[in-house]
Amino acid sequence: MVLEIAEKRREYGVLPITDEVISGQQQIADTFYKIKLIPKSINVSEIVWKGN
After folding, report:
1. Structural domain of residue 22, as residue ranges?
2. Nearby residues of 42 by Cβ (< 8 Å), 6 or more positions away
3. Is the model more confident about 30 or about 49?
4. What is the mean pLDDT of residues 33-44?
5. What is the tally of structural domains in the chain?
6. pTM for this structure?
7. In a domain, 20, yes or no
8. Does residue 32 sit within a domain?
9. Which of 19, 24, 25, 44 has a 20 to 30 A CA-CA distance from 34?
């Protein structure tokens, strides 16, 4: 029931990747690295497709 309510509140769509989004993703990547969920540190801004 709780999962169903949470899922209905989610929004889906395609949006531009802003600096704010990149920053949030970097924080997640840093956390994953610190807890050893991923084997090496990554720089999200280096791997974001910029449309060029």
Report:
1. 11-47
2. 29, 33
3. 30
4. 97
5. 1
6. 0.68
7. yes
8. yes
9. 19
